[in-house]
Amino acid sequence: xxxxSAYDTLAPELSVSINGSPMPVKAAADVINATVLDDVDAxxxxxxxxVGWDTVEMKPKWIDDTLFREGSEMEIAIGxxxxxxxxxxxxxxxxxxDFEEARPPTFTVRGYDRLHxxxxxxxxxxxxxxxxxxxxxxxxxxxxxxxxxxNSSVTLPYVIQHNQTDLEFLAVRARRxxxxxxxxxxxxxFRPRPVDDSPALTLHREIExxxxxxxxxxxxxxxxxxxxxxxxxxxxxxTARTSAGDGLRLMEGSAxxxxxxxI
Length: 263
Description:
Layout lengths: L11 E7 L2 E2 L2 H5 L1 E7 L7 E7 L1 E2 L4 E2 L12 E8 L4 E14 L7 E7 L9 E9 L1 H11 L3 E4 L6 E10 H12 L1 E6 L2 E6 L31 E8 L4 E8 L20
Parallel strand pairs: 11-14
Antiparallel strand pairs: 1-2, 1-7, 3-4, 4-9, 5-6, 7-8, 8-9, 10-12, 13-14, 15-16
Helix pairs in contact: 2-3
């Protein structure tokens, strides 16, 4: 017997909720395809494609249904058998009917998590005497999100947002101090990037893991990194250096990448 069959790994399960309620059975039966794109530095995206033709009444369906109203909250869970896990929760931002010549119409519902609210408009403005976490809290409130931020401590005398969306601006501020920006439901999270050396997932050969192609490359390895800046208040140069081996080790092995490069 195939080792995979005992785990039912080839029996996918899809669960969709709209505004907190399970999607009606009639709509769930019409689902053709569901896609979720989870991105680290951009809003997470989802799309749900349904059959768009009623074969009994011989007319399009779902296209004008209030079930898929723009702005409605949608949660998608994906897994196997009865082990579906929530993948993302967002809001509907687009509806896309498709009328092809040689096949019945389809109807695609598209949306993003609420991080997309920070990418609606470009702004130019200044912030004075505040921390990056204060800025994150303000931007969250302006977008109708709950700020869930960790104090960044350093008070900045002057920061400018120059023709950037709130998301672009906040992402730049986060990268400068090693923070991350993400949204979970209605919470805007602004915190140091978590570093955890415990396994996040364990895959077994010929059960969950169907193929595996590791690759090692010495391209792009450097033995030292130097960063230079300028302190306008003190009117002097700021220099920082770091060498190979100074970073956190989260993988097995005792040698840093640059040591494998022939000189």
